[in-house]
Amino acid sequence: xSIAKQEGLENGKxxxxxxxxHDLFELNPQPMWVYDVETYAILDVNEAAVRHYGFxxxxxxxxxxLMLRPETEIPEVLHxxxxxxxxxxxxxxxxxxxxxxxxxxxxxxxQSNIVYINGAKAELVLSTDITSWIASERERRASxxxxxxxxxxxxxxxxxxxxxxxxxxxxxxxxxxxxxxIGDLGGVCITDFLLMPEEMAFDVVWKNFLNGEILNGLMKxxxxxxxxxxxxxxxxxxxxxxxxxxxxxxxTERLEKKxxxxxxxxxFKALVQEGADLIAILDEQGNYKFVSESCRPILGIExxxxxxxxxxxxxxxxxxxxxxxxxxxxREHRQIRTEPFxxxxxxxxxxxxxxxxxxxxxxxxxxxxxxxxxxxxxxVLKARDLEVSNERYRKQNEQLREIAWTQSHVVRAPLTRLxxxxxxxQTGDTGGMPVDMALGLIRSSADELDEVxxxxxxxxxxxxxxxx
Amino acid sequence: xxxxxxxxxxxxxxxxxxxxxxFLKRSGIACDTVLCYxxxxxxxxxxxxxxxxxxxxxxxxxxxxxxxxxxxxxxIRDKPYLPKVLIVxxxxxTEESEKARAFAxxxxxxxxxxxxxxxxxxxxxxxxxxxGFFDNVVLK
Lengths: 468, 140
Description:
Chain A: One of its GO terms (molecular function) is phosphorelay sensor kinase activity. Chain A: Residues 17-71, 143-199, 264-334 form the PAS domain. In chain A, 44% of the residues lie in helices and 24% in strands. By secondary structure, chain A is of the alpha+beta class. Chain A folds into 4 domains: 3-134, PAS domain (Beta-Lactamase, 2-Layer Sandwich), CATH 3.30.450.20; 154-252, Beta-Lactamase, CATH 3.30.450; 273-375, 2-Layer Sandwich (Beta-Lactamase), CATH 3.30.450; 387-467. In chain A, the strands form 3 sheets. Chain A has a 6-stranded antiparallel beta sheet with strand order 7-6-11-10-9-8. In chain A, helix 13 packs antiparallel against helix 14 (435-467). The radius of gyration of chain A is 57 Å and the shape is rod-shaped. Chain B is of the alpha/beta class. Chain B contains 6 helices and 5 strands; from the N terminus they run βαβαβαβαβαα. Chain B has helices at residues 14-26, 39-49, 69-76, 96-103, 118-125, 128-131, and strands at residues 2-10, 31-36, 55-60, 85-91, 108-113. The longest helix of chain B has 13 residues, at 14-26. The interface between A and B is medium-sized, with 18 and 22 residues.
């Protein structure tokens, strides 16, 4: 039986005020109990405590307050009660950990006051379960810390503004990107660093922004030192009432790199797609992975018709083994250079090709063997024509040499004879040779010379005719 | 007559042999001349007469049947009597290359174009390269 009920029975019919105080205790939605500060024994407990802690009333009345605490908390309770014992009147409040009947440990806000029951010192305790509040508070703090960490550690500049566009806070990245310090913010307006396009009036834009219109895009940003950067600007109004967030990403370098990349790509396209050479990427088995557009004008083959096919299928059977043997060396040597070989074009004709193959399999951007091929068919044919021509000239030279030899040996034989005979006759002493005989020899030598000259002329005519 | 020198005239042209023999004799040299119609005949003569204590001056044509002048030069290269043989090439050929080829043979001391004249023969005999060999040669 409770203390209140016992008191009611002792006094007969309870007073109205007693009923009110009883109801305040018994019907209070907050768990309450009264304990003896000397023995820690729970003297009374209300229905809310029974509901919340799981013990029934009888169990409560046979417990001490120490039994509501996890073991680790007991020294703290003993200390708190010791203080209560030292005071006649005392209101105390604090947060503690309690343990329910099911073992669940809860966080509670304890508010207590000293009361006297039949002269005995007791303490009326009001317990408020703040477990959920503490958990949510912990989450809130963690969330705040997380967002603060993001705010301070993000690579983007984040500026918070008020309704007039005045900056109220900034993060570390803002210091780096815009050069502003937190102390600079007094009076700094977003228009001080955000260069709006001339056709846009800031007042209008800002008003629309405050009304929910999104303000973003690439904009020129002026740093504190006056230099300009290109920023990707994003903003959101009223992230909190009267507080607006602007996020600026410095894209100056990215844009420059993008421009360089585009220029590089244009150069690459000009070289690969529009160049005179045939550029292809093959795997280590010689299968085409990529073929440049120049394939069409050079070979009369659509690039897509080669992709996935094996390059060696197009090479002339007589040249295939030599090219294949060389290609297999690409694993040992980074670059190989082929001798001219024949490659079948889109019309079934063989073109003469030379190729420089570079192994770029390890380069993830390429991932294969880059083959740079050049059509040298015209040069080969011209070289062949030249060879034929040279052979013709060589033969002509031989014939001319033969004529020269003939001139030297055959012509000069009768000529020298003539000269010698004339010399002999001029001396007036023929050395025993009859003059008629000498003259006859002169005549026959002249005839011989005439015959030889005719043959030379005839041979020269033949050489000329052959050349024509 | 000089027993220490024999001149071999080697040419397939009989008229040219007659003319050169005549001009040589008119140049004042007094020595025996031997007429050969090709390189083989000259080689046979030298093989046969190699024991003679004499120097052989060969006036050698190039283009001849049976054995031409080049073949003759090649054939005597290993002959034991080679040191006793001096050769003057006498050819109708005018090419410098022929001349250079001829002088590649150590025994070739001169290269003359046909026809030889009396003056040419005198220059050959009186040249420095032959002086020691013709000490006993009597020039008219």
